């Protein structure tokens, strides 16, 4: 380095396309702040959380203090961050662990977004400030044992009896349900204009509401997903979310969560690449570091290209979202491409680590296991492929 260049920051070898140069000072500050939170509060403990299959409740106040709960929402104690800032935060959280990003996503992009987008002023005042502060936890009950990719086939019903709604049914794979204070439950209801899918705010202390964690799991072990039973659950008439009936209601929230996944997957991929690079530089075989072998360099280059492409895609979608131009098929393209790519990176990184890569001392295989869930929830590969197929051809091929 010459004297004229000595003042420059060192170049990050993983940032192949100098992406940092396209971020504002506020965006970089958000990213670095969340990265520091993950370094301090997640990385030292996440292997133990994953091994023990526990979600760290004591992490929630730190997430709230950092303004990460409902951070893309405005008012009610929410940070009102831009889409790109939100995305950068999701990438840093998932670089720590998908389960931690999942908590923030379920709380903010699903449960809080449902209330913010579809709720009454009274419902927003009742729930959003406490959820933003981390004092209250929410969950989002859409998927059912027999209705995953086809939510229109849901069997959960809500019937108006006097001045109460009576909800009957079951939900499955509901994140945070056993630790939640309120559940956004989607059910088929006759709301006076026919039977339509409607959202209901159900305090989890309501008699008849039961949430049972699904165990054992091989993925998202530092998170919690549940079976939920709703047996004659009674809530007042004003528990219904008044706006946007039909499946458009939950789908609007799913798009928020899917957008976060586009970014989150890049974090898992980047962290996997970083682990492989560090190991390849330190591990010696045949008298040379692994990084000096052509086959290892080929793996590292392929992974770095995938990480860079995923980051560029996420940033493009973030700029479109901030400009009000992001469309659902774009989110599907981002989720499908980036999660699939991140899985390939995590699996390849594990091979660079050799046998050590199957231990929890290293992150890539943990990321790969988590990403198997991420590729399934908020729309499987097949669902997003069909969404894109419909966009390209004009023909819906879901049935």
TrEMBL record:
PANTHER family cross-referenced by the UniProt entry: GLUTARYL-COA DEHYDROGENASE, MITOCHONDRIAL
Top-tier EC class: oxidoreductase
Domain Acyl-CoA oxidase/dehydrogenase middle as annotated: residue spans: 139-231
Entry keyword set: FAD, Flavoprotein, Oxidoreductase, Transit peptide
Recorded family membership: Belongs to the acyl-CoA dehydrogenase family.
Organism of derivation: Isoptericola cucumis
Keyword Oxidoreductase among record annotations: yes
UniProt cofactor(s): FAD
Pathway field: Amino-acid metabolism; lysine degradation; Amino-acid metabolism; tryptophan metabolism
Keyword Flavoprotein part of the UniProt annotation: yes
EC number(s) from the headed UniProt entry: 1.3.8.6
Pfam families to which the protein is assigned, alphabetical: Acyl-CoA_dh_1, Acyl-CoA_dh_M, Acyl-CoA_dh_N
UniProt cross-references to PROSITE patterns, sorted A to Z: ACYL_COA_DH_1 (PS00072)
Residue ranges constituting the Acyl-CoA dehydrogenase/oxidase N-terminal domain according to the UniProt record: 27-135
Acyl-CoA dehydrogenase/oxidase C-terminal domain boundaries: 253-392
Name of the protein this chain belongs to: glutaryl-CoA dehydrogenase (ETF)
Catalytic activity: glutaryl-CoA + oxidized [electron-transfer flavoprotein] + 2 H(+) = (2E)-butenoyl-CoA + reduced [electron-transfer flavoprotein] + CO2
């Amino acid at each position: 380095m010459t004297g004229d260049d000595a003042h420059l920051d060192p170049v990050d070898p993983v940032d192949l396309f100098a992406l940092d140069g396209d971020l504002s000072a506020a965006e970089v500050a958000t990213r670095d702040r969340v990265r520091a939170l993950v370094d301090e509060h997640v990385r030292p403990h996440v292997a133990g959380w994953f091994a023990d299959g526990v979600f760290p409740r004591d992490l929630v106040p730190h997430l709230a203090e950092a303004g990460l709960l409902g951070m893309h929402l405005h008012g009610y104690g929410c940070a009102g961050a831009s889409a790109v800032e939100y995305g950068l935060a999701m990438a840093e959280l998932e670089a720590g662990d998908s389960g931690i990003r999942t908590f923030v996503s379920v709380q903010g992009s699903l449960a809080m977004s449902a209330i913010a987008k579809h709720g009454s002023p009274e419902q927003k005042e009742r729930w959003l400030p406490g959820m933003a502060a981390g004092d209250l936890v929410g969950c989002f009950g859409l998927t059912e044992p027999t209705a995953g990719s086809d939510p229109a086939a849901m069997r959960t019903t809500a019937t108006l009896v006097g001045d109460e709604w009576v909800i009957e049914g079951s939900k499955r794979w509901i994140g945070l349900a056993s630790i939640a204070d309120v559940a956004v439950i989607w059910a088929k209801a006759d709301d006076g204009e026919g039977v339509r899918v409607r959202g209901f705010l159900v305090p989890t202390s309501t008699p008849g509401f039961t949430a049972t964690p699904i165990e054992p799991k091989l993925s998202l072990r530092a998170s919690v997903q549940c079976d939920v039973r709703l047996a004659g659950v009674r809530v007042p008439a004003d528990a219904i979310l008044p706006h946007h009936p039909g499946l458009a209601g939950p789908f609007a929230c799913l798009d928020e969560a899917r957008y976060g996944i586009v970014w989150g997957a890049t974090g898992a991929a980047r962290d996997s690449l970083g682990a492989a690079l560090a190991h390849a530089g330190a591990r010696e075989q045949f008298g040379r570091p692994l990084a000096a072998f052509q086959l290892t360099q080929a793996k590292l280059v392929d992974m770095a290209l995938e990480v860079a492409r995923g980051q560029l895609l996420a940033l493009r979608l973030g700029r479109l979202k901030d400009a009000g131009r992001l469309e659902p098929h774009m989110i599907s393209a981002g989720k499908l491409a980036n999660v699939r790519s991140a899985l390939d990176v995590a699996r390849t990184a594990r091979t660079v680590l050799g046998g050590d890569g199957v231990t929890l001392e290293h992150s890539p295989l943990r990321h790969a296991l988590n990403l198997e869930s991420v590729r399934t929830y908020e729309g499987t590969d097949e669902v997003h492929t069909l969404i894109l197929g419909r966009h390209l051809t004009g023909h819906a091929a879901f049935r």
